[in-house]
User: Which sequence fits this backbone?
């Protein structure tokens, strides 16, 4: 049994036609018929039923086709992995890369991209630095070799008076949009009206990450309330942030991606409709071409699970 036989089996199961499959797969009809006969003899079972309606799978054929798809997928994955190993051995990518990122980026989309990047390009010396989006833009302007991953609220991009993103010396590539959600401990037993009202939630204690950007985002969410948010705790400690919410001490501001990765926090809270959309954007200098290490990191970002699921 060969991989090419399994691919023919799969294609024939789709088309139900010897003629069409032979044409598409560039094989003679006789050769295709012989392949079917060979597979049936090898497996000692009838795979196809021929009739005026076409060539259709038997029950055994259905099982064989599903298994064949799994084998072909694993084979293709193996070929891709071996090709990467060969590529690294024959022409390894080397160099240095400094990537600036926001706190939110570091807890959501970067970890999975980093794992992919280091497995593919172990010879690149990567430096990650956490900084605010505005600071990241300023540093890239000063040093064109640096790249960044920033995230501003959607309203930031729509503000005609905002000139931070208007620079012709930078290139911006939108990668992902994510919601910031207010998570309320279930133990508070708030009504739906309270959970979804900014004027009611602003009365409750709140925990969020201790960055300038988060402070600005909290202000945006509660800008229509008649008072400032009641801040219980600001921290950069992820575990302390999570435990404060789980213990019912405060409600918290968290991204949809972070929440989906935190089963316990998701189960023990209710999520308010008060949401703010964040736009994650790749930033690089327009003065010089992006370095090969930076290009490869951008590729890994786009191929990471969070990006492909978005």
Assistant:
């Amino acid at each position: 049994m060969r991989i090419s036989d399994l691919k023919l089996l799969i294609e024939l199961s789709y088309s139900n036609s010897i003629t069409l499959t032979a044409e598409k797969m560039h094989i003679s009809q006789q050769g295709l018929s012989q392949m079917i006969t060979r597979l049936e003899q090898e497996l000692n079972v009838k795979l196809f039923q021929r009739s005026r309606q076409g060539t259709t799978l038997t029950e055994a054929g259905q099982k064989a086709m599903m298994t064949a798809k799994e084998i072909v997928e694993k084979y293709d994955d193996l070929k891709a992995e071996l090709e990467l190993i060969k590529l690294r051995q024959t022409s390894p990518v080397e160099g240095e890369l400094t990537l600036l990122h926001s706190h939110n980026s570091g807890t959501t989309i970067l970890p999975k991209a980093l794992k992919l990047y280091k497995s593919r390009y172990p010879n690149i010396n990567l430096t990650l630095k956490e900084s605010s989006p505005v600071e990241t833009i300023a540093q890239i302007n000063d040093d064109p070799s640096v790249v960044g991953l920033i995230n501003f609220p959607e309203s930031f991009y729509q503000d005609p008076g905002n000139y931070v993103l208007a620079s012709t010396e930078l290139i911006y590539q939108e990668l992902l949009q994510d919601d910031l959600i207010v998570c309320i401990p279930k133990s508070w037993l708030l009504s739906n009206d309270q959970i979804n009202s900014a004027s009611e939630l602003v009365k409750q204690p709140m925990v969020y990450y201790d960055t300038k950007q988060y402070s600005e985002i909290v202000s945006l969410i509660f800008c229509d309330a008649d008072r400032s948010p009641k801040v219980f705790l600001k921290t950069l400690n992820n575990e302390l942030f999570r435990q404060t919410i789980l213990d019912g001490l405060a409600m918290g501001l968290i991204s949809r991606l972070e929440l989906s990765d935190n089963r316990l926090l998701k189960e023990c809270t209710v999520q308010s409709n008060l949401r703010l959309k964040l736009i994650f954007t790749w930033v690089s200098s327009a003065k010089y071409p992006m370095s090969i290490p930076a290009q490869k990191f951008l590729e890994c970002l786009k191929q990471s699970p969070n990006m492909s699921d978005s």
